[in-house]
Design a protein that fits this description.
Order of helices and strands: HEHHEEH
Strand content: 5-15%
Helix content: 25-40%
Structural class: alpha+beta
Distance between the termini: 62 Å
Radius of gyration: 22 Å
Length: 99
């Protein structure tokens, strides 16, 4: 059974641990990847996330990517994953909603 709240010891203070903010090592990425992934203007999203933004199915996104006449943004392949630039997908959505 769970202990009563009044019987529990007080939580440890986070400031009591020396260097608590520095316990995780920095991610090691090549300079090219950090360039692509840095900043909100280069936010990359997956195909399911793009489908959710466009309010269509994942298969529809794949079909749009396969059709050169659709005007859908170019995809990027990073570490075996297909990613899209979020701003480009939103721009495509703006083009589609204005027609």
């Amino acid at each position: 059974m769970a202990a009563e709240p009044r019987n529990r010891p007080p939580p440890a203070e986070s400031s009591a641990l020396p260097g608590a903010d520095d316990i995780h090592p920095r991610a090691r990425t090549s300079s090219g990847e950090s360039e692509i992934l840095r900043g909100p203007e280069h936010l990359l999203i997956t195909v399911p996330e793009a489908a959710s933004l466009l309010r269509v199915g994942k298969r529809t996104v794949w079909r749009l990517m396969a059709d050169p006449q659709s005007g859908f943004p170019e995809r990027k392949h990073i570490r075996g994953r297909t990613l899209l630039v979020r701003e480009d997908v939103l721009a495509f959505l703006g083009l589609r909603t204005s027609q």
